[in-house]
Amino acid sequence: MNLNLTQAQSGFRDEVRAFVAERLPVEIRDRLRAGHPPGKQDTVTWQRILNERGWAAPHWPRRYGGAELGQMERLILMDELYQAPAPLPQVFNITMLGPVLMKFGTPAQCEYFLPKLANLDLWFCQGFSEPGSGSDLASLRTAARREGDHYVVNGQKIWTTTAHWADWTFALVRTDPDARKQEGISFLLIDLKSPGITIRPITSIDGEHHLNEVFFDEVRVPVDNLVGQENKGWDCAKFLLGNERTGIANVGLCRERLAHARAVAMRTRQGGGYLLDDPKLQAEFAAMDAEIRALEVTNWRFLLTPSQQQALPAFASVLKLKGVELQQEVNALLARVAGPQGLERRDSGETVHGPLTPRYFYSRAASIYGGTSEVQKDILSKFILG
Asked: Burial code of 95-117, b = ≥16 C-beta within 10 A, e = fewer?
């Protein structure tokens, strides 16, 4: 298959680059380039700018605010956003919940929620993991009992990313305690302003507050907020996680971080020269560049070939596994190249390289979220090795 860009695709790439160069606020770009994660307002500001062109939700139908871009154009757009660098569209809204609503939601749910998801008028988080129910998600115990036109939810979620910023959560809850694990789960949309919800912060190893515990105590949720059928929420979850893992290769992110590592090495003194003068480091850069290119080609071949997606439904796990490995390797390289200055935090008035070592620490979580690497290997062994 020909993996070269067509003239139209090259033109689209130039269009995206020009748009990003003109519209991306410089202060946002500079913070991300230094290694800081985007703040909530960074993401809201940039997503609303993207939404003017339908690029906040590029694969969605136009009637819901998307641009109906093809797979290749979507890859180009994401790659350019990563390399700018710019905040990506909020993943829980765009990549996860939006497609679930289009496939399983009611017309009323789609009409109400999808435009708000695209414009980030509502910020959603993901209420899946629980204490003791992470990789074995179907063992979750948060329960919802039906009382008239409401469900009453009790339980706890954990590792809930951006719950402290979020307006709503989409959550898996157990609605039939007597059914087999996967068959008694439902998918609910829950307003986090509802009485009975408590959100507590979890500080991760990078010293940041990304994660939270979320507690539900007799929380009343309208039955109209059920997505799909009662006790069939596992179908929604499988569909959602497939989308999450396919998008987790993050080739553009790896390439941008590698370019930043090269720039840091180019300006960091060592002896009478610079770090980049070291032949061993040059060889390491070249090897990692080749690995990233190989992942990119593999990603293209899979996503642009429907027959391969049908023949290898578990191949998203390959992209997830290799993408995570490269993200962690490039973050480790950045931390080594930056040295002690990579430990400086965002509250330092004279940061040179940004918080690169803390970002390396946080990158270790990439092999856990979206399904652990061990689980992905089990999936591959089942589908490929039999």
From this structure: bbbbbbbeebbeeebbeebbbbb
